[in-house]
Amino acid sequence: MPAASLALALRAARTAASAVAGTLLAAVALPAAAGEPRGAGEPLLVLAAFPGAGGIDKRALDLVVAHIRPVGVRLQIVRPGTPRPVLQTLLPEANALADTWDARGVLWIDAGASDELALYVVERNGEQIYGRRIPVLPGQTATALESLANIAGAVAEELREGHVAGLAEVKVAPVAPAPAAPPEPYGAPALAASPAAPAATAPADAAPDLQPPAGPPSASTGARREASPLPTFAVLAGYSGASFSSAAPWQSAAALRASWAPVDYAVLGLGYELIPSTSLGNEQSTFELSRHPVITTGQVRLRLPLGLDLQLGARATVDIVERVPEEGTTQQALREPPPFPPPPGHVPPPPPPWRWPRMFPQQLPPPEARTDVLVSVAPVAELGVPLTGWLRLKTTLGVDVLLTEPDATVHPALALSANPVRILAGVGLELGLDLTAPPAPAGMVRK
Q1: pLDDT of 9 higher than 80
Q2: Statement: 44-215 belongs to CATH 3.30.70
Q3: How far apart are CA 100 and CA 89, in angstroms?
């Protein structure tokens, strides 16, 4: 065979071998590319939702997922086994979840409180918890959920870029519990984010609503975040006064009251006023006036700025009034007889037109003790000023309307006329204690 023909044959063989190798490599690479999941190159985030009343946790989870989908991350949803997050163990649990799922960060949704939602975020291998709390006002649950979802979407975008910058740091007492086992996955193993899916709300819209990074809180910020505590049970001791009657224009008393708030905006109370006994009457006849008022109240409690509270409502009083004659009070005649004999220069009165029976002045028996029960109602307003802790200064003002009057068919020596409308005033110190609210986690401020 000529040398030129041999060279051409070798070149053709090498070309055929290269074509066969390229075909085999393409055949192997295409199945591998076809089997690669969509979005495999996108970072993974773990999303955990604590249970809440009325299915609010499911609504929050759905909204948060819808807002995170367009960001360009994958989600792994888990369900914790505890009803509320424990901040002391949240950091190690989040790191364990991030290591288990090879995730860039963990987002925790806390919907267990009735008056607020919370979002906690931990970066992978992070040493700090970031958080944001959103108050849930009456009738505005949907607004609070939408705010939570917007914030979660913005935080997911920050985690995708590598660091959380828009949430405040949560201060937690340092503990070192053993990392908990990761919870079982909920639903599908992973929810792949679709870059082409339309965004329900642009994450940039939530950026102005985010809190700046945590720093030393100022006094004004602390005053805004820390709401003044209002007691569930309270005991009040103080002074009370009222205009009782013309004979006793103003009576003072030591007031005692116990109150209970079944809900934050309603207060019920039961009290007693210790009133010193008073002597009434004239030089000829005096009696001792003793009062024992028992008071019930029902009020609506309103929160005011600067930690003040205003209670508006009514009170009903059952007043046991005792009139006891004092020693020296003698029997009295209904009318005084004319002097006899008449003084010089005075003509005696003419005799009655009839001659029999002769009329003598009617004598009254000695007075006896009398007990009456007076009932009254009054609109009242009560202002509370916080002093320290659960101690508050209370001032009260009202107008008491008398529904029953003292018995007038008594001995004239015990005559008493009570004012139909009376002015009430009082001031006292109230010591309260909230026994229904759960203890706040360490490092958190109760609202």
Answers
A1: no
A2: no
A3: 17
